[in-house]
Amino acid sequence: MVNRKNKIVITFISILFGLIVGALALAIAGFNPLEAYKIMFEGIFGSPKYISWTIVRSTPLILTGISVAFAFKTGLFNIGAEGQYIIGSLVATLVGYFFKLPIVIHAIVAILAGCLAAAIWGGIAGLLKAKFGINEVITTIMLNWTALYLSNYVVFWEPFKRPNRDASQQILDTARIEILANWKVSDAGREFLKNNEFLKDFLNPPVNFGFIIAILVAILVWYILKNTTLGYQLRAVGFNKDAAEYGGIDVKRNMIISMMIAGAIAGLAGATQVLGVSRETAILTAAEGYGFDGMAVALIASSNPIACIAAGLLFGGLKYAGSKLQPLIGAPLEVINITIGVIVFFIAMPKLIDILISAINNRKRGVEVENTK
Amino acid sequence: MKILNDIGGIIGISLMYSAPLIYTSLGGVLSENSGVVNIGLEGMMTIGAFAGATVAYFTGNPWLGFIAAGFAGALLALLHAIACVTFTADQVVSGIAINFIGPGAALFLTKMFFDGAAMTIPVDLNNKIPRPLDGLFKQGSFLDSVFNQYATVYIAFLLVFLMWFMLYKTRIGLRIRAVGEHPKAADTLGVDVYKVKYLAVILSGVLAGLGGAAMSIAVVSNFRNTLISGQGFIALAAVIFGKWKPHGAMLGCLLFGAAQGISIFLGRSELISSQLLAMLPYIITIIVLILFVGESRGPAANGVPYERNK
Question: Does the interface ipTM go beyond 0.95?
Fold first, then answer.
């Protein structure tokens, strides 16, 4: 009943509802919602710098979103993107700092190492599910916290820790994936950018290749799911495990592969964030939430990897713009989490929106009938 | 004697940390036995922790705070129930939404009530949940460490018994389980499936809310944004670990609490890295699952929306 076109309509209506509830929350708290939304709109589109910040902030969310979406498609619930993200960033930082490799190759090696480690981390949950039948929701939750403390432990390791800071050493310049990072601060670059206001502003934030990688991954994952035997098998397992097994598909093997791929993608999110933006792994007291935000992204995108790009940009944009509310009008930025929650909430119940749409249609039809009388 | 007192210390810490988990996992048990998956426990716990700390601070009465926490959790659970029961929503998706709305609203309101601060003002130590057996035993003795607990700890264990009794020894309990196993059959026998599910989900919110308050006005004395970070999910894990039974879930929470107690105790000696110790509870949980639990099967119709006409 809910076809593809309806799905998109439902998503947009849900986003609208989310923004309305967000506005209501602001209004009840005594803020002018129109003013707040104006600030947020300008906070994203007001300057080339803001646009590139939005892209930078959205990149990890797009990737963790794809990770969760991929697992969803194969019938698994990856709450573990958070931990896989942490492992990916930790290993990318380790390789980025300790390895001495030429530029470009260094970055590629660091990214692959991060993905591989995170794939193994995700694979543990897949293996435990396949082998012992342990629900992946439990294991991924436990692995999230294990990853967090493991990362802290490694960062505290003497040769790796930066003295007097709650963070690791910074990665070497050869491993960075920031676009034109060195050129930006060189004499020639400065001279050039002086005359190009737009580019200067756009390149001010740490714009990096992560976003391009995310888009490529989205396309790749979409292609794998849609056009390959592996994708077919994975989706079959997600659709009906027993039927897939009966059809000769190795369900257990596919579960492990699925969690490994999901882990690799979440790890990629962490790796690109380190190599492109933070350049270090910080000591964490609590999860940063990239994995959990990824769940919302995947849901808003109805688990379509390509749609995760748009959903990630929406979420990243809202989060980035929301952070400007507090300093400018004093409104808590948590209104963004409420908004996102409400969007996901309405997406969860297409039936309600279906009812609303048909009610509106019926009324229209009623008016038309009235008019023809 | 020292070793006995140390063991007492570990047991005491374990009980204290288990209590908030037990409330919340009982909520999970109740909701899932009626066939509604409740991933949103974390969000309900967070709003409960906030409401408990805030009301206890402004009224000076911890019990009013505790009750308010139950109401706050119920309110959020009502949203979950409307979505899952009336509008046959995807229950996991709705639960995730609750996990954004709950903590978002809790922090939003904290900043509103406390002039933009990201935490509530701590309640006076005398206005925390009382310890009913305080002073009964010699301070620092084994019995003191084990039994001198906040009242919320005792209530948690009482609730485990009550929940077990209700689910397995009363009519309403039978109805809840019937609805979770085979809603259609229950419906034919005249059970109002929707009403039962609403009741179970809303009560699960009450319990999760109480779990949050057991954290914010007993274990510590205020609400802050990192206070509830993952306990709701651990409680959920305990539900699955305990095979959807109240006493099983309690064991899961105790196991986790004990692992935490041991790691805190060992942390005092500073022989082992505190980061490695912090991993312990999570790793132990996984190992125990591998060794003893294996495949767990919940109520047959858990997670499946029910529509009467289908």
Answer: no
